[in-house]
Amino acid sequence: MDFERALRDLAKEHTALKRDLLVMLSSPTRAESEAFAACWRQIGQARRCQIIARMVELAEESFELDYGALFRHCLHDTPPIVRRHAIDGLWEDDSADLVEPLVRLLSTDTDPGVRAAAAMSLGRFVFQAECDELDERRGALIRGALERTIEDPDEEVEVVRRAVESIAYINDQAVRRIIDRAYDHGDSRMRESAVFAMGRSADPFWAESVLAELYNDSPSIRYEAARACGELELRRAVARLIDLIADPELEVKIVAVWALGQIGGDRSCNALERLSQGEDETLGAAASDALDEMRFLTRPMDLLLHTVDESTFIEIEVPTREDCESAGYDHDEREDDAWEDSSVDPNRVSDG
User: Would you say residue 208 lies in a domain?
Assistant: First the structure.
């Protein structure tokens, strides 16, 4: 009853879209979803746009709110903005049966914004397929749709670049060539996506390219390069990433801090510790988060100790850094710069 009452109230153009009202639409039953579909058609387009935008916003703020069934219905709505909001609202839905609707939107929707959103949303399913968590048929369906989009000479750049970003999870020669072509594209937006894709690929083949782009004049490219260095865990990027903490653009500073946390090492740790104790609250908070992430990534045994009986282990004394230095095992921070990141010349993409 509350669900139907909320629907009736929401249909009124001048009713405020209060949280308490929209919460009633969460986790609908099948019958309630059908009631939503019937009522939704009677609501004006502008009002529908307002309602779904607010639902997406609330779902992002509160993980316990579930509008998935309603968002799925809205994938077929008339206004493109409603379809785009519906895709955004389903961002955390990793159900395999969402693949076909997203592929359909990418392949046939008349609005480029919807196609771009669908291309982006398919990325998580590409990742699932690469991890053998999605059936081969759907994996092939997604790859085929993304490749057709990328190869379509009449497709909008915004759609193609999002398809490049999503297909980058696949690490093979064909995808290397796709990223390489995007990197050589004349549109700066495509180059940004290419650098993003280099990091997402987790392929050390692209190390030299992303290292070079840390010096690009474009803040957007520097941002993507810093992020890619973090994803590729490039030790040789540490010195430049520390420099980028003083970049004129705040977004570049923050992603450089994040990347240092992903890469790790003494030099990164020392820089982050200094930053976390500095006067800049925004960067200090980012540095603290990066340090927490670094410690989590480098101390997996801590997690194991919480789940296994302590009697299983013998007690060992972990040497401190001072113990190591007194024993003659001194770590030189300059080793970070000399670290050999596995890489292949990115200027040549083999056809083999």
Answer: no
Q: Which two tokens stand for residue 20?
A: 């308490």
First to last CA, the chain: 63
Above 60 in pLDDT, residue 321?
Answer: no
- Spatial neighbors of 88 by CB under 8 A, at least 6 apart, are 56, 117
Closest Cα to residue 236, out of 258, 207, 209?
207
> What is the model's pTM?
0.83
Question: What local confidence, expressed as pLDDT, does residue 299 receive?
Answer: 67
What is the per-residue pLDDT for 298? 74
Query: Cα separation of 313 and 307, whole Å?
Result: 12
Q: For a pLDDT cut of 90, what percent of the chain falls above it?
A: 79
Work out how many domains the chain is built from and give that number.
1
Residues in contact with 271: Cβ distance below 8 Å, sequence separation at least 6, in sequence order: 242, 245, 260
Can you tell me whether residue 187 is helix, strand or coil?
coil
Q: What is the pLDDT of residue 338?
A: 52
Find out whether 80 and 111 touch, Cβ atoms under 8 Å: yes
248 domain-assigned: yes
Instruction: Read off the pLDDT of each residue in 40-64 and give the average, rounded to a whole number.
Output: 95
For residues 240-251, give the mean pLDDT: 98
Identify whether the C-beta of residue 83 lies closer than 8 Å to the C-beta of residue 52.
no
CB 192 within 8 Å of CB 220: yes
Mean pLDDT of all residues in 187-193: 98
Residue 256: give its domain's CATH number: 1.25.10.10
- Residue 4 corresponds to which tokens in the numbers above? 């139907």
* Separation of alpha carbons 91 and 103, rounded Å: 15
